[in-house]
Design goal:
Elements: H1 6-25, E1 31-34, E2 37-41, E3 45-51, E4 60-65, E5 68-76, E6 93-101, E7 112-116, E8 119-125, E9 134-135
Parallel strand pairs: 1-6
Antiparallel strand pairs: 2-3, 3-8, 4-5, 4-9, 5-6, 7-8
């Protein structure tokens, strides 16, 4: 009489699940992720820091309006040149976005941003303003 090995059954179950999840990779669905940020309150401004590794400046969009900072970035990780003989392709179109409510009004026209080594830093001077949304240039 042979004993049943429950661990072998669990391994088989995990292999089946892995195969089923692999089918979703072929659907070419863009991946969207949330973006983690740090918000610092300085005496005369707010500073927002976000890690965006692998993105180019041109792929990042920033805007501020009504005490809300919107950060979004999108990149296409696939190449058009020669598909090769891939057994698995997980690098696809990636996008991240985040809307961040600010605790106080900011001087939208004086907002600035820098992007260095994958780290985006947005400086938002505090002030009262009733203007419409303004795009922020990244230096």
């Amino acid at each position: 009489m042979s004993r049943r090995n429950p661990f072998e059954e669990i391994e088989q179950m995990f292999e089946q699940m892995s195969d089923q999840f692999g089918q979703f990779d072929d659907m070419n669905v863009p991946a969207t992720q949330s973006l983690s940020v740090d918000l610092a309150d300085h005496e005369d401004s707010f500073e927002v820091t976000a890690d965006l590794p692998g993105y180019e400046r041109e792929e990042i969009d920033l805007s501020v309006a009504d005490r809300t900072l919107r950060i979004s970035a999108e990149r296409d990780e696939t190449t058009e040149e020669g598909d090769g003989n891939y057994l698995r392709r997980e690098r696809r179109r990636r996008s991240v976005s985040r809307s961040l409510s600010l605790p106080e009004e900011v001087a939208e026209e004086e907002a600035s941003a820098t992007y260095t080594n994958g780290v985006l830093t947005v400086t938002l001077p505090k002030a009262a303003s009733d203007e419409d949304s303004r795009s922020i240039d990244i230096e």
